[in-house]
Specification:
Layout: H1 19-22, E1 25-36, E2 39-51, E3 54-63, H2 65-70, E4 77-85, E5 91-100, E6 111-117, E7 122-127, H3 140-143, H4 149-157, E8 166-172, E9 176-191, E10 196-210, E11 219-227, E12 233-242, E13 246-257, E14 260-261
Antiparallel strand pairs: 1-2, 1-13, 2-3, 3-4, 4-5, 5-6, 6-7, 8-9, 9-10, 10-11, 11-12, 12-13, 13-14
């Protein structure tokens, strides 16, 4: 995510939710360590709330220590999105925004980017100035049916089916367009600060499409999920592209589902 992420991580196609899940009230809070270029580089905090058929998600990413100092806070962002869950179970973002980045020094809260989602398009605006839409910018056809990165994570964690069997069509930060093609890659046993038990492993093909400016190479990434008693899948590990630092890996430090910590 330039603004995660990459984290996170966590585009999308349909959410295979049941009717009861569409009208549920539920929450998920994840606190993650950010690893970039082989070092512990920062923190990523994510919150998802569903009330009936509406949802919100927020996140904050902060690069810490010498990494944060070296980047001059250029990778610190806050994110927010709101949307609805359709009759078919699909998450439909309506309004996304993020703020932060390279101009933090002369603008205390950073530049504000907003993306308004409709059924057929996404319109991105910036305050101040015009948004950077990348080179080449995503076409109208490439923007159709996409979701932001926060909704992508929410789609995976609220899935009632295997989260590893799907393609996510992501429009990250209202600029970078890519697909995550997920496929099952077995299960693994996890014993971490956030969770102990069996986890579902996804092999994820990252396929850049448009808007990156200098396109990254396609890559194979890994996601890990814990199936919780609530029915939601808690993301344990997510790998995502991030401007300026390459692929970042989010590793769960604490996970809370409907107010109860997993460990």
């Amino acid at each position: 995510m330039r603004s995660l992420a990459v984290a996170l991580a966590l585009g999308l196609a349909a959410l295979a939710g049941s009717a009861s899940a569409q009208s549920a009230n539920r929450t998920f809070v994840g606190q993650y360590d950010v690893h970039a270029r082989g070092v512990l580089a920062g923190r990523f905090d994510y919150r998802f709330t569903q009330t009936g058929n509406s949802y919100t998600a927020t996140a904050n990413r902060e690069m810490t220590g010498w990494v944060g100092a070296a980047l001059n806070r250029s990778q610190d962002y806050r994110y927010a999105v709101r949307g609805t869950i359709g009759a078919n179970g699909a998450l439909r973002p309506s309004a996304y925004e993020h703020q932060g980045g390279r101009r933090r020094d002369d603008r205390p809260n950073g530049r504000l980017i907003r993306a308004a989602f409709t059924a057929d398009d996404v319109v991105t605006t910036a305050q101040p100035g015009n948004p950077n839409m990348g080179d080449p910018p995503a076409t109208a056809a490439q923007r159709r049916g996409v979701v932001d990165q926060l909704s992508a994570i929410a789609t995976l964690l609220t899935s009632s089916a295997d989260p590893c069997s799907r393609t996510l069509n992501v429009y990250m930060d209202g600029r970078a367009r890519f697909d995550f093609v997920l496929s099952p890659n077995g299960t693994v046993n996890v014993n971490s600060a956030a969770y102990r038990g069996q986890a579902v492993r996804c092999s994820v093909q990252f396929r850049p499409i448009a808007g990156f400016g200098e396109p990254p190479e396609a890559a194979t990434l890994t996601f890990l999920f814990a199936r919780t008693t609530s029915g939601m899948y808690a993301p344990l590990t997510i790998e995502m592209p991030a401007d300026g630092v390459g692929v970042v890996r989010l590793e769960a430090r604490r996970l809370t589902v409907n107010g109860t910590a997993l460990r």
